[in-house]
Protein 1
Amino acid sequence: ADYAARLGHFGNLLVANLHGHHHWEDRSYFPELAAADPRFEAGLDVLEKDHEALDGILDTFTRQANRVIKLVQLDEAAAREEAANVHKGAVQIEQLLDRHLTDEENLAVPIILHHKLRG
């Protein structure tokens, strides 16, 4: 039950923060960079596709985590088996974020530095 509570709490924080962050990027950060430098547009598709992929991965992760949380009360052995899927989802999130953040850094940082954006 403690595992289920922690999974619910931290899983929700992870999903909510990632959704919030990438929506902010799509609505504010990316348009600001594109307005400052047209070179950013060339890489924008890559970053936006990552956001679309992340939405799907987060939705699957949420469904899997919620299933495990429910199973903890009903069938602890089944919950343990299904927890492997939650772990796989977490690994997918990590891999996508690692690639995405590297791409974002390679695209955004030179523009930020060149145009002296954001302090």
Protein 2
Amino acid sequence: MENKKNLEYLDKYYSLKSIGNSIDYLSKKIKRIRAHVNPFKFLDKHQFEGFKNNNPIIIDIGCAKAEFIFELYKKLKNYNFIGFEVRPLMIKYLEQEFEKYKNIIFFSGNAQNNLINIIEPNLKKNIKIEYIFINFPDPWIKTKHIKRRIINKEFLNQIYQLFEKYNVKTKIIIQTDVDFMFNDIKEQIINSKYEKYTLFDKPIFNIQTKWEIDSIKKKKTIYRLLI
């Protein structure tokens, strides 16, 4: 019932007409959707044969309200964009709001279950996966929930092996404002087949996520790395 009420609210008060006016195009109209969702409850397997062009692809894992993807789109219109978001309600509405953008697509559920089968058909066609962004992932601070973190050795190894198979060099950008989470991410990378990472200071393409903007206002440190 709660999800239905949220959708009714969104349908009534939000229109795509405002999408180009502000990075807050969705944030101001959407009611709060639950922030923490267990990714393991979603077992769906998605299939995607690719876009109707051979343009390079940028992927955003945990795209939330897709402000970041939309800002990328405005700068990089010759790219295709794939957004993963664990919350089905958010995806349902992003699909509606971005319907006219044929080079942007969203998938719901657990990205760990779907990233490989979404990416591989494109790699088979020699389409370049330029970047994978994982921006401010849920730190899942309780010990019993650590296994829910999106960045772990097994997931990184899956990605590494896929890109090695097709001999491609995709940049993976990870950003967080949680120091202990950043330390764990670095440890997971070192223990994976990637083994190393590069730290950097400035946001890629000079685009900040909504979360980053809010964190900076709160005087939080932003940690960034590239693998």
Protein 3
Amino acid sequence: MKTCKKCKLPKDDFRKSKKYIDNLDVYCKECRRIADKNSYNSNLTQNRKAGLESKNKARERNRQFIRDYLVGKACIDCGEDDPVVLEFDHFENKKENLSILIQNSSIAKIEAEIKKCNIRCANCHRRKTAIQLGYHKIKIVG
């Protein structure tokens, strides 16, 4: 049984850490949680700024991945190939919304969701969705 450096109590519950010879943290899990929380709160502004920068960097990386992916692709219905108007249309078990995934997910997760999609231009996508959901039965008053 190891003794916590902070609370000085013998405990079995320590986090793994490669920094130490025995591969265990010097603080028990409870003391480590408190120390980490105090450290985070004492550097709150800096931590929030770093988190925001990281999120923005990931978002831009993901947007660039989508832009690069759509170059050279075309709508499966009409052949439109302008990446600005191309969209992903799920054809099987939609698990995630790609616009949400772009905000904070890995490229691998985005690629996995793209594999479940066809590429359609915005107009063809709207038409297909309207027919699929029965919108074409609604009479448009004009």
